[in-house]
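Hi everyone, sorry if this is the wrong subforum. Our group has a chain we'd like a structural model of before ordering constructs, and none of us has done structure prediction before. Sequence below.
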Amino acid sequence: MNQKRTRRIGLFGMLVCCGLSALWGLSMERASHDGMIDFKGTFYAARCLLQHSDPYKDGEPLRVYLAEQNDRPLPSDVLRQALSQNIYLPTTFIFIAPFAMLPWGPAHLLWMMFSAGSLLLAALLMWNRGAKYSPFISGAFICFVLANCEAVLATGNPAGIVVGLCVVAVWCFLEERFVWAGILCLAVSLAIKPHDAGLVWLYFLLAGGIGRKRALQTLVVTAVLGLVAVLRVTPIAPHWISELHTNFLAQSAPGGQAYPGPNSANTGSGPSMIIDLQSAVFVFRNHPLIYNSVTYLICGALLLIGLVHTLRTRFSTARAWFALAAVVPLTILVTYHRPYDAKLLLLAIPACAMLWAEGRPIRWLALLVTAAGIVFTADIPLAILVTLAGNLHISTAGLSGQMLTVVLTRPTPIILLAMSVFYLWVYVRHAEPDIEFIQQVGE
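Answer:
Right subforum, don't worry. Here is the predicted structure as tokens:
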């Protein structure tokens, strides 16, 4: 099969997979009273602000929601919490407000379309890069990611847009095309969910050269957006900082959406499970000081190794892809994330394709860890995992039982940790990847 035909098949497969995810996500949204739960939280918080009411005051967005429901069913406890405690920064309102000016019906459909379009564009750009080295592997991974986007579309979480724009920005920077569009995309990602795009931005800042220039330009745009948002929100919600902090604490408490235990407000397992490293350490010791400290110590050590090497190494496009492949799983591990945030693993696909194209034995390990990371952050496999694990009765009384619990019910953080360690090793210690070969193939 010639390469041109392979590219056509890959493109067709990506369109089909994205379309299936969109249809499935739409059906899930319509089948549940809590459909688009994450978008409802930000949507009604923005409507609250448009009505000159404090969107960070506990219960205010819920009041606006109830006032517009008429005879519809009352929200569930999970939806009530999402509508009562706004945890998004003021900069989010800049992008939600245009949707909040519309009625709910067209607003949530447009948001879903925008999310699907952002992810599809990001996938196409990663295909554009990865297919230069291995069309089949790149296409297979990307199609699998796109076929497992139901949860982010059904919940309306901003991660769909944030991840898509972050990936687009990386492509623009490394390909040196549409640079100002890339700067704007990364600025928007940082403004909405800085814990998704923050380490990607930090890598470009420390990489030096043109990467640092792009990072500083992005910082300026983000600062302008932040200033505009604060000036708009503060007169209406003068105590928004303390209120936001209170909402964060409530969400992190037992029963809250960000609580790493199995009894968080949202489903504690499956496509909505929490996948940060805290959720795995939690099994061994249910104490915030313990699971947070262990997570920060492990992730901090890996981050420090990568940062030191970045500062001491000359920037190149090939090295950047390997660095990002290590940074992305680390981003997901260090703080509160769910599987829809892990669509950011699209950034690891070009690095895997590069190692495969080199033909060294290490390519099989790259294929294994990348496949494991993508599969165990995907909606359908996680739904199957929770179904199978639900029939198991595992005691967590001893160390062996705790380890078995993590492996069988929460394998994702461990797999992401292995993925980050592997690509960090490739980036730092592995016999230097054949940069010249990779660059020649990529041209």
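For your construct planning: The chain has 22 helices and no strands. The mean pLDDT is 87.
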